[in-house]
Amino acid sequence: MHPYLLHSGHLLLPTFGVLAALGLMAALTLSLRTAAIVGLDPDKLWNAGLFTLLCAFALSRILLIATNLHNFFAYPILLLTVPSLTSTGILLTLLAALIYLRIRHLPLLDTLDAWSPCASLVWAFLALGHFAEGSDAGLPTTLPWGIRIPPSHTRLHPVALYAAIAAATLTLILLKQLKNRRQPGDAVSLALAAAGTLQFLLTFFRQPYPYTTTSPYILLDPIQWIALGMIVVAAIILLLPRKLVSHAV
């Protein structure tokens, strides 16, 4: 495991942070190409992507501070270094992005299609970051590619590496789909269905959440519920008239 690219005294450069930043920049750069494929203004899509990323960062920090005011006043710098993207932050970011798209007159499905391979590319970089820091622990395995996370000597499934390979493959598939799409929404529906299915399957190689094994009433992990939700949204996009979805915002 290599959680830090640089560790010198008080200077720490986390590998995950570096890979996340590279992934975001790569996704923004890729959006210039995907925008042209779907017939959107590349500059407008770049600005929309940058706005969404800044919203995700700002809103997540605001929520973190609001829910931890005492700790923020005591250790402001330390608290702001804590990962803070939550489901509430993601929901607020999506809402802000939808409002921005409406104001800038960017068609919803075309924009989501163009963003689909960019999102899967970010997923690949984030998965590599988790692999580097050893934060996505898998179940024990006897397979030769199993990894050990110190101090344990047990070989585990490299779930983060599985996810990175799956995400990179999905990115290539989506780029091909984008060039051959028949109507708006084809790429994003494929992205949601494929990513949801992959995430659902990957949970069978991950260590389960503690409360899912102790409570008989919880049948699925939270990630599995989110994955099923993604598949349902993909089905809705495919089944509903595309003009209706496009004018929903």
UniProtKB/TrEMBL annotation:
Keywords attached to this entry: Cell membrane, Lipoprotein, Membrane, Transferase, Transmembrane, Transmembrane helix
Alphabetical GO biological process terms: lipoprotein biosynthetic process
Annotated Pfam families: LGT (PF01790)
Documented EC number(s): 2.-.-.-
Presence of keyword Glycoprotein: no
Statement: the UniProt record of this protein carries the keyword RNA-binding: no
GO molecular function, one term: phosphatidylglycerol-prolipoprotein diacylglyceryl transferase activity
The organism's place on the tree of life at top rank: Bacteria
Parts of the chain that traverse the membrane: 12-33, 45-66, 72-100, 112-132, 159-175, 187-205, 217-240
Single GO cellular component term: plasma membrane
EC top class named in words: transferase
UniProt family annotation: Belongs to the Lgt family.
Name the record gives this protein: Phosphatidylglycerol:prolipoprotein diacylglycerol transferase
Organism of provenance: Tunturiibacter lichenicola
